[in-house]
């Protein structure tokens, strides 16, 4: 059964996937709560969504700020009971040596990528359970399946998001709340533009948005793409650890 959504929260809405999702969901009768840290880009997204007829509450909020984020989300939910939460905000700031010389980068990555997901879901999940309706989407990555070279803290944070999301799906199903874990490969963004490694099968954010929205409408447990990288990662998880390490040059 296909689901439709009327009140949607998207964190990281000033980034490529978040922006594409916001623009694609924007329409008359839709209420959007969009958060981000880039004021100029966030306002541009909000303006474009309003032009398409959506009601938009744009919050210039860091997902690490648990109190500010929680207050903003609760206020939006009071006015527009949320039926879709997309915890999308994330960073990748590791250096080539995976920041082993600066663990503050490791901790910041985990705080944003995992802590930010918790800060986004926590204020709303109880309300959605009480309403016995809604969908929660957490954005992981195909990098969260195998210990790839570079960006160790990013990979670890996305692995944590994936396992947490897949685990709470079982719990929330009893309350009528769906959970989807989104696992993209490489999507065009400033992060992939500056990546110090190859980014095969690079996908435009508009295409990623289409795949994600189709998966969320069907309450898919895992929305992973593109297929070639998904298949390679799947194979890597089945190989003995030493084989995978050798293939990755470790």
Give the helices and strands, then pairings.
Layout: E1 7-10, H1 16-25, E2 31-36, H2 39-51, E3 55-60, H3 66-79, E4 84-87, H4 103-131, E5 135-139, H5 152-173, E6 178-184, H6 190-193, H7 205-217, E7 222-225, H8 227-238, H9 241-247
Helix pairs in contact: 1-2, 1-7, 3-4, 4-5
Summarize the structure in words:
With 250 residues, this protein is an alpha/beta fold. It is 50% helix and 14% strand. It is built from nine helices and seven strands. The protein has helices spanning 16-25, 39-51, 66-79, 103-131, 152-173, 190-193, 205-217, 227-238, 241-247; strands at residues 7-10, 31-36, 55-60, 84-87, 135-139, 178-184, 222-225. It has a seven-stranded parallel beta sheet with strand order 3-2-1-4-5-6-7, with helices on both faces. α1 (16-25) packs across α7 (205-217) and α4 (103-131) runs parallel beside α5. The termini are far apart. The mean pLDDT is 90.
Radius of gyration: 18 Å
Q: Considering DSSP H and I runs of 4 or more, what fraction of the residues is helical?
A: 40-55%
Which percent band covers the strand fraction?
5-15%
Could you state the order of secondary-structure elements as H and E? Answer: EHEHEHEHEHEHHEHH
Name the structural class: alpha/beta
What profile does the largest beta sheet have?
7 strands, parallel
Please tally the helical runs, counting DSSP H or I stretches of 4 or more residues. Answer: 9
Number of strands: 7
Strand order of the largest sheet: 3-2-1-4-5-6-7
Question: What is the 3D shape?
Answer: globular
- Unreliable segments (pLDDT under 50, ≥5 consecutive)? none
Q: What is the arithmetic mean of pLDDT?
A: 90
The end-to-end span amounts to 45 Å
């Amino acid at each position: 059964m296909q689901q439709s959504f009327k009140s949607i929260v998207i964190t990281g809405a000033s980034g490529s996937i978040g922006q594409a999702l916001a623009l694609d969901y924007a329409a008359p009768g839709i209420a959007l709560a969009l958060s981000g840290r880039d004021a100029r880009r966030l306002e541009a997204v909000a303006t474009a969504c309003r032009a398409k007829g959506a009601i938009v509450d744009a919050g210039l909020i860091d997902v690490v700020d648990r109190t500010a984020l929680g207050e903003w989300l609760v206020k939006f939910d009071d006015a527009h009971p949320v039926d879709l939460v997309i915890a999308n905000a994330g960073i990748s700031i590791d250096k080539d040596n995976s920041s082993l010389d600066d663990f503050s980068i490791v901790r910041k990555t985990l705080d944003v990528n995992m802590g930010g997901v918790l800060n986004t879901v926590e204020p709303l999940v109880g309300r959605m359970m009480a309403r016995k309706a809604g969908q929660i989407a957490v954005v992981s990555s195909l990098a969260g399946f195998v210990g790839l070279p570079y960006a160790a803290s990013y990979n670890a944070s996305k692995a944590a998001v994936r396992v947490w999301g897949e685990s709470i799906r079982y719990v929330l199903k009893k309350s009528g709340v769906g959970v989807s874990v989104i696992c993209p490969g490489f999507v065009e963004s400033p992060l992939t533009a500056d990546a110090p490694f190859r980014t095969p099968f690079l996908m435009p954010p508009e295409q990623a948005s289409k795949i994600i929205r189709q998966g969320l409408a069907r309450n898919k447990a895992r929305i992973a793409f593109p297929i070639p990288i998904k298949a390679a990662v799947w194979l890597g998880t089945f190989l003995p650890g030493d084989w995978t390490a050798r293939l990755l040059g470790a």
